[in-house]
Amino acid sequence: DEICEIFKLYLNEMNLSNDIDLKELSELCLDLTGADIKSIVCDALVKAFHRAHKNMNDIPDLEKDGAIELE
What is the pTM of this model? Predict the structure, then answer.
């Protein structure tokens, strides 16, 4: 399936949850272009980054900007 292969191309170096089914996902995206899929993957990556960054701010050893203070 072409759409599934496009998802694999953009997701090949990402650690995905075991419950992600690329075949099922690709079946939901049959009308999308490669650019649409790239945009979806980029949006998901940004959201994951923000979620991880938000969780980092909950760690007391971090500065306000989220950077670890090195001494």
Answer: 0.67
User: What pLDDT tens digit does each residue of the chain (71 aa) get?
Assistant: 899 999 999 998 888 888 889 999 999 999 999 999 999 999 988 888 888 777 666 655 545 555 544 44
Indicate the burial class of 49 (C-beta count within 10 angstroms; 0-12, 13-18, 19 or more). Answer: exposed
CA neighbor of 22 nearest in space, from 1, 46, 44 = 1
| Cα 18 from Cα 45, distance rounded (Å) | 17
Count the helices and strands in the chain (H runs, E runs): 3, 0
Q: Which residue's structure tokens are 């650019």?
A: 35
